[in-house]
Amino acid sequence: xxxxxxxxxxxxxxxxxxxxxxxxxxxxxxxxxxxxxxxxxxxxxxxxxxxxxxxxxxxxxxxxxxxxxxxxxxxxxxxxxxxxxxxxxxxxxxxxxxxxxxxxxxxxxxxxxxxxxxxxxxxxxxxxxxxxxxxxxxxxxxxxxxxxxxxxxxxxxxxxxxxxxxxxxxxxxxxxxxxxxxxxxxxxxxxxxxxxxxxxxxxxxxxxxxxxxxxxxxxxxxxxxxxxxxxxxxxxxxxxxxxxxxxxxxxxxxxxxxxxx
Length: 261
What we know:
alpha/beta; UDP N-Acetylglucosamine Acyltransferase, domain 1; Udp N-acetylglucosamine O-acyltransferase, Domain 2; 2 domains; ten-stranded mixed sheet; 4 helices; 27 strands
């Protein structure tokens, strides 16, 4: 049964709230909303129609969840924002729900979304990511597991950021950022293997060297990405991480970032 609900909060009677939910004064919760157990909604948060929130989520002041998509194709369809478990969403974050009927904007589990972030329609944030202050993520993007986007990053529509990659502060990009790397500068470019995250994740140094060798072939060679991937397959010892790199690069539709030669 829901508890800790301020009488000064506006909660539509149709909204579904789980056990031990805290809703502070002046929060606004619409009717087509589901909030799981042990969530905490701070003052002046707006939880709009289409929000489906998991358990143990903390939403700080001024945030708007399931805001209408800022997309000229949106005509009022019923869509959703799916938020998983144990997320921390800080102040003044805006997350849009999806554009077309049945669509979903998805925030996975255990993400830390910092102040002033905007996540647009139909974007998928996977798990264990950090999205830094003031970062803006356009529609239909993918931010994969354990990725870090530092402060004031601008991710243009439909880009992907691979698992355990880091995009440094102030970068803007329109192409995919592959797994396990650091992306830096403007124009954005490959800045090396993200050894800090890999070491913290317990990835053996030998595997890290294999990842570095794979990216030497991809970024330093004078061949197409297709041919570089084939060189990785032929020359770099196989592992789960190498397979992730191959799969990510093969699936790119926008191309990947480059390296300033």
